Amino acid sequence: MKNIAIGIDIGGTNTVFSCIDSNGKSYCNGSILTQTQEKFEDYIDDLCDAIELSINKLEDKINVIGVGVGAPSGNYHTGTIENAANLRWDGILNISRLIGERMKVPVKLTNDANAAALGERIFGGAKGMTDYMVITLGTGLGSGIVVNGDLLYGHDGFAGELGHIIMRPGGRVCGCGRRGCLETYVSATGVKRTAYKMLAKEMDDSSLRDIPYNQLTAKMVADAASNGDKLALEIFEYTGKMLGEALANVASITSPKAIFFFGGLAKAGDLLFKPVREAMEKNILFLYKDKIDLLPSKLGDDAAVLGAAALIWNDKK
Q1: What pLDDT, on a 0 to 100 scale, did the predictor assign at position 175?
Q2: CA 202, CA 220: separation in Å to the nearest integer?
Q3: CA separation for the pair 283, 246 (Å, rounded)
Q4: pLDDT for the residue numbered 213
Q5: Nearby residues of 37 by Cβ (< 8 Å), 6 or more positions away
Q6: 71/11 Cα distance (integer angstroms)
Q7: What does pLDDT average to in each consecutive run of 10 residues of the chain (317 residues)?
Q8: C-alpha angle with apex 111: 237 to 67, nearest 5 degrees?
Q9: Are 131 and 148 in contact (CB under 8 A)?
Q10: What is the pLDDT of residue 205?
């Protein structure tokens, strides 16, 4: 009988799950819509029903040793989702207890970036590392920080919010209610905001001018930059410079061996990595110069569920 951990990634639209063994192999997977049920308890019932149905279809017998969950505002210490902005259910949601009662196995919870950081160590490029970071570059900017082999959670379970350090006091309005957060500049949303600011400021010809505001994406900007569009290249230079400056500061606190990037924006490759590296090395304290590797994640498209399952497998290593 094969031991597996169930990895669950809760997104604003879809909840994805997979049965993952200790080597990162998936035995079954599936998904449900996240926000169709008015009551959170009914959503959990739907999710567990889907998982059990998927497992029952397997020809091989498996033994579920635990469930790992990556969720917005997931608190590792309490096993609760707390006031998640992109979920329909308000307040504190005791997801670990509800799934545990239904599945009869241990349940562990954290946010998606922390899950990705664990996944990188168990299944990806951080094997053998004790000090590193994972930066998730999607609609927002998330981060998971590992120090001396342990994830940095802080006393309340919410440490490591690199996306919400203030880079420009009084700058862009952030969804958190403050101004100038790194996430408002370095994220898919941030790239779009930068694009429209530069389009309004500059007079240079650009293919981006032909794209309606509500249709523009960070990928379109990356594609334009790859084709040599001057304005698009300036957008990525600006974005990379901002992120590199932030990482130079963080390095002074955590001294990571490597920083891994994943998410849609990270797929821009050297368009982003090159200016990030240049800005980080230019601004970093001399003690840390040329010591930190900037690397793409090796978890691939299954990063979210692999990271969630790693919450369970991490205790078995």
Answers
A1: 87
A2: 18
A3: 9
A4: 79
A5: 43, 46
A6: 7
A7: 93 92 92 94 97 90 94 93 88 96 96 92 94 92 94 91 95 94 95 93 88 90 94 96 97 96 90 96 96 93 89 82
A8: 140
A9: yes
A10: 86
Domains defined for the chain, CATH in brackets: 2-119+302-313 (3.30.420.40), 129-297 (3.30.420.40)
Structure-block tokens of residue 158: 């919410």
Q: Beta strands 62-70 and 2-10: pairing type?
A: parallel
Look up tokens 């930190």; give the residue.
292
Sequence-distant (6+) residues with CB within 8 A of 194 are 185, 235, 238, 239
Cα separation, 256 vs 139, in Å, equals 25
Closest among 195, 251, 23 to 124, alpha carbons compared? 23
Residues 276 and 86: their CA atoms lie apart, in Å, by 29
- The end-to-end CA distance of the chain, in Å, is 19
Reading the block at residue 239, the tokens are 């974005």
AA letter at 106: P
Quote the crossing angle between the two packed helices 218-226 and 270-283, to the nearest 10°. 90
This prediction has a pTM of: 0.90
Q: How far is CA 314 from the centre of its chain?
A: 18
Q: What pLDDT, on a 0 to 100 scale, did the predictor assign at position 316?
A: 67
Locate 86 and state its tokens: 């992109």
**Token pair in block for residue 317:** 């290593």
Pairing of β 74-75 and β 80-82:
antiparallel
Helix, strand, or coil (residue 192):
helix
